[in-house]
Amino acid sequence: QVRLVESGGGLVQPGGSLRLSCAISGRTSTMYVMGWFRQAPGKDRELVAAITWSNQNTYYADSVKNRFTISRDVLRSTMYLDMYRLKPEDTALYYCNTNPPTQSSWGQGTQVTVSS
Q1: Rounded to whole angstroms, what are the CA distances from 59 to 4, 13, 83, 98?
Q2: In b/e form, how buried is each residue of 4-43, taking b as 16+ CB within 10 angstroms?
Q3: d(CA 37, CA 7)
Q4: pLDDT tens for residues 63-95?
Q5: 88 φ/ψ angles, rounded to the nearest 5 degrees
């Protein structure tokens, strides 16, 4: 089982930036694609970005394309999400997980609030 701990969220003004981190431990040999997901109040959880662990191929949802960057540090077993030009609609609880998700690996998430 992969264990995941998200951090780096906070309150930021529209147009601001944040970096989220996902610390990964456990059965990392099972990782192939990792993703960042988010869930806003009253909405379903959605995939916003994903990265293939071995070759760093990336995927972005249209809503975050050209504003968010996903990356990973193999030596630190950490995945990142750099978020730029944040919008109020980016407000959500952000999670990392394998993609497709491993149900038993969901963490507590990290809250991102974009507001003036």
Answers
A1: 20, 26, 14, 13
A2: bebebbeebeeeeebebbbebeeeeeebeebbbbbeeeee
A3: 13
A4: 999 999 999 999 999 999 999 999 999 999 999
A5: -55, -35
